[in-house]
Design a protein that fits this description.
CATH class of the largest domain: Alpha Beta
Number of domains: 2
Low-confidence stretches: 233-287
Mean pLDDT: 81
Number of helices: 14
Largest sheet: 7 strands, antiparallel
Helix content: 25-40%
Structural class: alpha+beta
Shape: globular
CATH architecture of the largest domain: 3-Layer(aba) Sandwich
Strand order of the largest sheet: 2-1-4-5-6-7-8
CATH topology of the largest domain: Rossmann fold
Oligomer: single chain
Length: 443
């Protein structure tokens, strides 16, 4: 469970900013399950999620993928040349296995300047490792090939990346969290391979995904994978083809027969099945997914479904994985991909102790002000981002800082600019700009 994330000098974020997921009101939970980030366009909302995603990739890739002479591929604040000479910092405070972990690092263009991992068993700080330049410190309780791992760690690589691969036990759970416990959802309209795997007949997540599709009121009652349909048609008389292969429309009947290797004359309920007719159905579903609506027996292919339906389908797989993890799920601009009712439903999934007993968390950016009410989001789950008009730097702050009165109309006050983080628009300037466009001599 993520307690906080701190970042400095990353894209539009110049000074250190911190997203805190500790509850300000409901102390029965160790962390808030949701953080909703609001702000004007180009204010830096996406950059905050990008910073956390970049930290994840640095942990996973710095040792294996960053070249020895390539430095650190960071993205510091660019509008002030002085920022390039300053370091960038990233840190997370989280709970793993009931124990608090505090991990972070500081980098410049060339190397890792600092890196540390502290844990807090029984509330007391324990140093796992600390690194500052060429100076290293290891805690007395740490076990494993520490000297060998340190010697393998290049100046531009993170020690955590090396330690987890060197069987240093105290680092493994944190590395796994970055690998599996932090996911950035990118629910575009292209059906992902994860969807195919999750909808297979033997998938443990299939029923959850189908339920999420049904409650979205898309009219979908069932989804079948073409592989499973063919297996059913031939009654077990076929050897399943490799999942990595894709059915192609230019394949002829002998090719499909070779791929499936008919063992005996296939029958369904005692009646012969024509191989070519089954292949014709496969050709109509190049995506290998069949969508059934209502009681209609004729399915639609993925290409015949709307982009919104395909987007929600991709997102349901990420949701199911996050709730099952538990995982921290990042979702940028939820309102551009989801109807407001669906977005509200998504938030409720994570906020429900019954649906989310393991403590998965959702961090998302949005412009949908209709969710700014106490029934959907509590005040400590609402964050704002605004950009300084002169320095063009991003500032992050919580609604809880304003101490709004109970039952205050947060949506109306936000749109009126009471909390900042809204665009400042000039109707006069717009009219003047449009007048210039039609009349070059207009003043």
């Amino acid at each position: 469970m993520l307690r906080s994330f701190r970042v400095a000098n990353h894209k539009s974020i110049r000074a250190a900013q911190e997203l805190v997921l500790l509850p300000a009101y409901d102390k029965s939970r160790p962390v808030t399950p949701v953080a909703a980030i609001y702000g004007a366009n180009a204010s830096g909302k996406s950059n905050l999620l990008d910073a956390l995603t970049w930290m994840r990739q640095a942990v996973l890739d710095s040792f294996a993928s960053w070249t020895p002479s390539g430095g650190v591929p960071r993205v510091p604040f660019k509008l002030d040349p002085a920022a390039s000479a300053e370091s960038s910092g990233y840190a997370v405070d989280l709970i793993l296995g009931g124990v608090r972990h505090y991990y972070g690092f500081v980098v410049d263009d060339n190397m890792v300047r600092e890196e540390w991992l502290h844990t807090f068993p029984k509330g007391r700080r324990r140093v796992i490792f600390e690194r500052e330049g060429a100076d290293w410190t290891f805690g007395s309780t740490v076990r494993g090939p520490l000297d060998a791992a340190r010697d393998l760690t290049r100046a531009n690589a993170l020690f955590l990346s090396v330690a987890a691969r060197s069987n240093i036990t105290e680092c493994e759970s944190l590395f796994r969290w970055f690998d599996k416990g932090l996911v950035c959802a990118e629910p575009g309209p292209t059906i992902s391979a994860d969807v195919h795997r999750a909808l297979a007949a033997n998938s443990p997540r299939r029923d959850v995904i189908l339920d999420l599709l049904r409650v979205a009121d898309l009219g979908i009652t069932n989804v079948e994978l073409m592989d499973d349909v063919l297996e059913s048609l031939f009654g077990g008389a076929i050897v399943q083809h490799r999942v990595s292969e894709t059915l192609r429309a230019d394949q002829d009947e002998p090719e499909i027969a070779e791929r499936y290797e008919v063992i005996s004359h296939p029958t369904v309920s005692g009646k012969s099945v024509n191989l070519s007719s089954a292949w014709a159905r496969a050709q109509r579903s190049s995506s290998r997914l069949l969508f059934y609506h209502g009681d209609h027996p004729v399915p639609l292919t993925a290409a015949e479904e709307s982009a919104g339906t395909r987007t929600w389908l991709n997102l349901t797989v990420a949701i199911a994985g996050a709730l099952d993890g538990p995982t921290v799920l990042l979702l940028d601009e939820a309102d551009t991909t989801l109807h407001p009712h669906l977005a509200r439903h998504l938030v409720n999934l994570f906020r429900s102790p019954q649906i989310n007993p393991l403590g998965a968390q959702l961090i998302f950016t949005s412009h949908d002000a209709t969710m700014l009410d106490e029934d959907t989001l509590s005040r400590d789950e609402i964050w704002f981002v605004e950009k300084d008009p002169s320095a063009q730097t991003t500032r992050l702050y919580s609604l809880a800082e304003f101490r709004p009165r109970k039952h205050e109309n947060t949506e109306r006050r936000y749109l009126a600019g009471s909390y900042g983080a809204v665009p400042v628009l000039s109707e006069f300037a717009s009219r003047r700009a449009l007048a210039r466009g039609t009349d070059p001599d207009a003043a």
